[in-house]
Amino acid sequence: MHPPTITCKNCGNPFHGRFCNNCGEKVYSQKDKSVRHVMGEVFHFITHFDGTFFTTLKTFITRPGKMAAEFTSGLRKKYFKPISFFLLIVIAYLLFPRFPGLNMRFQTYVSEDYNFRWFSVPLAKQKMRTAQLSESALSDRYDHTSPAISKVSLFLLIPLCAMVLALIYMGSRKFFFDHFILSSEIMSFYIFFQFLFVPMLALIIEKTVPSYGYLFNENFQVISVVVTIMLVYTTIAFRTFYQQKLWLSALKACLFLTIFAVCIRYLYNMVLYLTVMAFA
């Protein structure tokens, strides 16, 4: 006796069995709607999430570059998807907003020292004319709007980082997809370390040893630590992922961080400035 033909509710395809052979839609039965089945699904999700997430978290902290190398080689089942992992870290950062992120205040853009003042100042003047705002009013509106937009703009870091990697490792025979996956790992660590770990450490020190809280108020000291840790992390990641000598990895890590810092300083911040101006 042949099983009954079922019409897929999603695509209209006739098929036999529990899953549509055209789009994969599942046929739900009364059993699938039982409390026991739902609890089983929840348990499976929690145990699977814990396994992949904490494996990914441990690997990307202790073995830089390994997760990206194994993921791009096809070993993906034991890891959280790199973009999903990056998204979770960004969400955690948004829920713990202590540092302002990759953001500059309005007065920095219009100061005499800013290299692209020829671009930022005319745009600010045009905004003041069209919105009938004074410079101080526009500054307040800009500084109020920019933190939220700058945090959402963190998603631009991965493709920007991948383009820099593709430039530095032009002869590595890696696809852009490979650079993209490594970029997601490096940027995940960057946000995790600078915007989650360091602020959390600062908060703990301020609460337990208030006399040392000033250390985290000195931008130069914080940036120096972040740059050093990022240099070490990136060097190890490059050596693992691109399979090259340590000295060459360190050299390219320095080049990468320099180019990336310039891109953040000018390209990223110019795009952010345009976007915030549109909403301010």
Major sheet size, sense and barrel closure: 2 strands, antiparallel
Strand content: under 5%
Mean pLDDT: 81
Shape: globular
Poorly predicted spans: none
Quickly count the helices: 10
Helix content: 55-70%
- What is the C-alpha radius of gyration, as a whole number of Å? 24 Å
In order across it, which strands form the biggest sheet? 1-2
Report on the architecture of this protein.
The protein is an all-alpha fold. The protein contains ten helices and two strands. The chain has helices spanning 35-62, 66-73, 82-95, 106-109, 117-131, 135-152, 157-168, 176-208, 219-242, 246-279; strands spanning 6-7, 14-15. It has a two-stranded antiparallel ribbon. It is globular and about 80 Å long.
Which helices and strands appear, and what pairs or packs with what?
Blueprint: E1 6-7, E2 14-15, H1 35-62, H2 66-73, H3 82-95, H4 106-109, H5 117-131, H6 135-152, H7 157-168, H8 176-208, H9 219-242, H10 246-279
Antiparallel strand pairs: 1-2
Helix pairs in contact: 2-8, 3-8, 5-10, 6-10, 7-8, 7-10, 8-9, 9-10
